[in-house]
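Field guide to reading this record: the first block holds the primary sequence, the second block holds the structure written as discrete tokens, and the final block holds curator observations. Each block starts with its own label. This record concerns NAD(P)/FAD-dependent oxidoreductase, catalogued under organism Metabacillus sediminis.

BLOCK 1 — SEQUENCE
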Amino acid sequence: MKNLVILGGGYGGMRILQRLLPNNLPNDVQITLVDKNPYHCLKTEYYALAAGTISDHHIRVDFPEHENLTHKYGEVASIDRKEKEIVFTNGETLGYDDLVVGLGCEDKYHAVPGAQEYSYSIQTIDQSRKTYRKVNDLPAGAIVSIVGAGLSGVELASELRESRKDLKIKLFDRGATILSMFPERLSRYVQGWFEDHGVEIINGANITKVEPNVVYNHNEPVQSDVIVWTAGIQPSKIVREMDVEKDTQGRVVLTPQHYIPNDKSVFVVGDCASLPYAPSAQLAEAQAEQIVIVLLKRWKNEPEPESFPQFKLKGILGSLGKKHGFGLLNEKPLMGRVPRLLKSGILWMYKFHRG
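BLOCK 2 — STRUCTURE
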């Protein structure tokens, strides 16, 4: 019996399960899903969990059940490609024939002293829970500083504004304008929403140090009751320690079939994979679809595809609280209620009509 091991039940790992189960998995193949949690987590909604506008249960989705699917709950210490086994922090090992590495990402602190020690995060469900508890225990008038005004920072700041109108929220942005990677009209709209709702945007920020309750912008101290870090990501530590070729962002360089060159047994999906797109749930799912095609061909002893068409990504959607949003669909900017409704609809479809 061949063993396909999937490390991480994120968007990529979940899509592989959805495409193989219940009817496409050969009888001589079993799947072992490895994750720290006994459920799939909707990472795109962690900002709302941290802000306190949704419950923990709202962003959990059960893993599928199948007679040829085994769940292994634990924390991975390393991947031994020579022995083809996973090593866990408790010393246990797990062998594999094919491996899909989908361990996601961690915060990137850019060597800023104190950033990791003295800031909160929304990268994992556990970290988001801790951020929720800290933020929602604050008294009225407390200051929350959010470092990083990308999609996560913007969504957290806007959701927190609706959740706690009594807090003072500061959003530190490296750019001259917020969301500078988007069209100017969309960027102005988001900036205007924050101004109308009393969120202070600090453009041209350069965070040089973080201390307990103090974030230093251009070496100038800014008092803060809570500091939340949303200023960049990097592949998981396990992937960073793998002895394989990586790009400048530390992501694993892959063949067109999404496995490691010279090691066809190891695929990498999602935030840890070197792809010509920004990491996203949508991208991980699109990549997972192609990995399934390769696996099915391999198991049937048929030639693997030499290449795949470019991914057809539909765009980006972001929320500004529960009633407004923004996005780019087919390069067309969207602002107001429509993108927020679209995002809510996509989330509902994902939770209740998966696969």
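BLOCK 3 — OBSERVATIONS
Residues 24 and 88 are 29 Å apart (CA to CA).
The longest helix spans residues 281-299.
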